[in-house]
Design a protein that fits this description.
Blueprint (H helix, E strand, L loop, with lengths): L10 E2 L2 E2 L25 H5 L15 E6 L4 E2 L2 E2 L1 H16 L4 H6 L8 E4 L12 H13 L7 E7 H6 L11 E6 L20 E13 L6 H4 L3 E7 H6 L2 E4 L4 E3 L2 E3 L1 H9 L10 H7 L4 H4 L2 E8 L2 E2 L11 E2 L3 E5 L2 H18 L12 H8 L11 E6 L1
Length: about 375
Amino acid sequence: MKRRDFFKIVSLGGVSFALNPVIKASELSPLFNLQDGPETNIADAVKIPRTKDSMPGLYPGKVVKVTDPGSVVEGKPQEDAAYNMLKTAILSLTGEKSLKKAWRKFVSPKDIIGLKVNPVAGKLLTTSHAVTKSVIRQLEESGIPRKNIIIWDRREMQLHETGYTSENYPGIKITGTECMDEKGGFYNNEGKLYSEERIDKNQYFYADLEGTHDDYTIPYMVNGGKYSYFTKICTEQVTKIINIPILKNAGPTTTLALKNLAYGTITNTSRLHKIWHETCAFVCAFPPVRDKVVLNIADGLIGCFDGGPSAKPQFICNYNMLIVGTDPVAVDRTGHDVIIAKRIEKGIQTEDKKSASKFIDLAQDLKLGIGDRDKIELIEINS
């Protein structure tokens, strides 16, 4: 594959991106040699200089885990508890005494802030409204206009199905990449997918794997072929992203911050399950994600330890916790350990498999954060 010039390097606030460091090819881990795996354009992504907001953010390797046994009552997450847990986490993470000053380290009233939630598993296991509303409430208390907040995910339909609607969130835009009209149709009068207008074909993740979709699946993939395009939500609409994944498993591995971002921001993803670990790490190394995600809030009020990433009632549990940090890799390592410990407790497996966290190792090698347990500063608080 020839080198592809898929990003336009621009300047921000008069400061050229060229002033920021890039990862040299010699610094890349042997993990990036996929051997028999498909070729990708990750080498092009890492050559693009970073910005001051790039992952792992303001607090590399620092994670705050707040636990409150009363955060879920009769299967329902409690908003007051979630608010206080989040407040505790944000103040502890930043070292500030003022909640407004703490939030202003990440966002300003001039930003358009995207809250990346996860509704994929339906009402049984979605990013809880208790946590999402707590984030919005604290942003507003910190001087962020409600009109500057967007709740988004890949599939707009799933957002609506799980209660992310204008009725429940007045004054806030609810949007997704894949969408349909009021009649349930995916195509406009010209026979073109509405979703095609919401993707940026100038910015993409390439992998030498062919995506082939039938008439039923194409509206959920947007395009086939070897390219996965980034959503315009990331490339054009938002200036900052707050990532709010769920604490859940996918077999012997886990899906938290990196997975929520990687598979939620691009099209044509079904083909990429063959390189799941690489996709989770590689996609997050591209500027639309790497340079805009300022905070990760893993919603562990309710999660699962098996049957994920979908939701099976017998495997749903109350973790009663939030895991918060600017570093998505450190957040994922912390959440991974929580879920694996639960799986071992339940007799599903006897030990953690190193291969299950390959995506964390890859992301660390891409300098997206710290995945080494010995180098993570974990602050545990019981409310």
